[in-house]
Amino acid sequence: MRRRVLENYGNCCLGSINLDKHVSVDGFDWDSLGYTVRTAVRFLDDVIEVNQFPMQKLREVNLATRRIGLGVMGWADALIRMGVPYDSKRALELTEELGKFIYDTAWDESARLASERGPFPEYETSALKTRGMPPVRNSSVITIAPTGTISRLSDCSSGIEPHFANAWWSNVLWKGIDGAGEAGERLLDAPKSVWEALRERLADEEQVRAVLEQLADDPDGAERIFTENGIDPAHFRTSMLISSEAHVRMQAAWQKYVTNSVSKTINLPNSATIKDVEDAYYLAWKTDCKAVTVYRDGSKSMQVLETGKDTADTENIGKLFL
């Protein structure tokens, strides 16, 4: 499938579906998900219609192409809820099934919209018509954005990323770079899906909290902590414990069903070598990823996300900076 590049003055009309909300006891609720996809396509198309454009050129291009970017978030949460390890063959199989379903449903709804309101103006001269696509309302329909803010507001994992940590300490107040502020209360925090999964597997809330505290203090010991508590650690592998190959292959599986692009970070541990980075980029190219981001933990003096104890500053134990 040929993937498109955002044209000059093209728009970013984005919206993301929380996949975790569409998991039932038997797996995915396809009827519910299909309804959400169709509703989202119509909603995003309406956004283009009512949008306030700051420049006339933006208006002209966006109304001519009507590009939308429907994406997903909560993927890591959905996998945990289904008991599927992120870096497993089954997770890739689910990605293929899910990605194709969303892709086909979104295009079908765009075609329905075209029959009601007309196709996007440039359809007649587009590659879509050349390849036999019936008239559609939008030149592109699917993308996968980072969803850093909206996933936090929705209390779900971001995009198609695995969880960065199973638990962490949130410091309400701590000393800033200029020395202002003071250490305050530490709050134990964890992804909603991890909390709920532990509640299903452990005896009581006190044990759940005890395990999460251990995970926040010692993220490197996660496998041991889970195993000691009778839990399969494979279901809770975080970004640093997932191989770069598994990261890339997950992105590549989603990329097959994305008409724009995929936002995904290939997280590497601090010990990663230049060869490790090279291998990640090469595999991304080999598997037809449109673009790829590789980040080696600790390669910057300050970074957005950190876990574990900070021996240099005991006031910032187990922090997650946001």
UniProtKB/TrEMBL annotation:
Asked if Oxidoreductase is a keyword of the record, the answer is: yes
Q: Which domain of life is it from?
A: Eukaryota
User: What organism does the UniProt record list as the source?
Assistant: Geodia barretti
Fetch the Gene3D superfamilies from UniProt: 3.20.70.20
Residue ranges of domain Ribonucleotide reductase large subunit C-terminal in the record: 10-129, 135-295
GO MF: cobalamin binding; ribonucleoside-diphosphate reductase activity, thioredoxin disulfide as acceptor
Q: Which cofactor does it need?
A: adenosylcob(III)alamin
Q: Which InterPro entries match?
A: RdRp_reductase_class-2 (IPR050862), RNR_lg_C (IPR000788)
Q: Which UniProt keywords apply?
A: Cobalamin, Cobalt, Oxidoreductase
Higher taxonomy: Eukaryota, Metazoa, Porifera, Demospongiae, Heteroscleromorpha
One short Pfam name that applies is Ribonuc_red_lgC
Keyword Oxidoreductase attributed: yes
Record protein name field: Vitamin B12-dependent ribonucleoside-diphosphate reductase
